[in-house]
Amino acid sequence: MTLPDDLDIARVEATLRAAATAAAGETLPRFRNNVAVDNKYQKGFDPVTEADRNSELAIRRVISVEFPGHNIIGEEHPNLQTGSPFTWTIDPIDGTRAFISGLPVWGTLIGVSFEGRNFAGSMSQPFTGELFLGLPDNSIWERGSERRTLKTKSTTELDSAILFTTTPALFTGDLEPRYKRLEQSVMLARYGCDCYAFCLLAAGHADIVIEAGLNSYDIAALIPLIENAGGIITTIEGKPADQGGHVIAAATPELHRAALERFNA
Prior knowledge:
Strand order of the largest sheet: 3-4-5-6-7-8-9
Strand content: 25-35%
Oligomer: single chain
Number of helices: 8
Number of domains: 2
CATH architecture of the largest domain: 2-Layer Sandwich
Shape: globular
């Protein structure tokens, strides 16, 4: 991807940081505090809270001040379309089910794309104090004064891999046996970490993350984080994952290829 020469990456990074801080001001006071939950579905369960809605508004305010001409896409509020080639994509609480259950594996996701390809993004987890940043030249992890450059593992074989997914129940229809085949091929499978699983992959603690039915706001922020840590992330068809879909990420190209071949066999 070629970015415009006049793009100020430092300003993009500063905006990601400021937006994450603004969101934390809305999410953290409500976490583990018996927040009221609404259901967005008449059938099934898709929870949303005041923390989701208010934190997205806080993020939008920061972006609108720093980059007033850019598009903004969010999960909880109407999209802002300006015609700009730049788009900020927000999931204020990825993992609302974890949030309302008191599990600190949810995160605030903010991705930045140019002409449809994500080049920067952040995942912030204010309860643990962690910030994961994917930038054009590297991916980093921070917690307070601690800072570390992220690098994925060197795993190339499925039988040595640790796999994460939110839940196998998301793989329905013809996806169910395909997922089971992949899980049975890996060393270890773990469930229920939402966006945090992708961060663990970028940080070198996991090898594969596979998810079904993602929206763009579920994955936009995580693509630069994984790619700039050395990982590979695509749809299960091997295409760019910027718009979501059924997504698979892996620590190395070899492992990604093996996982795709096993899943699609």
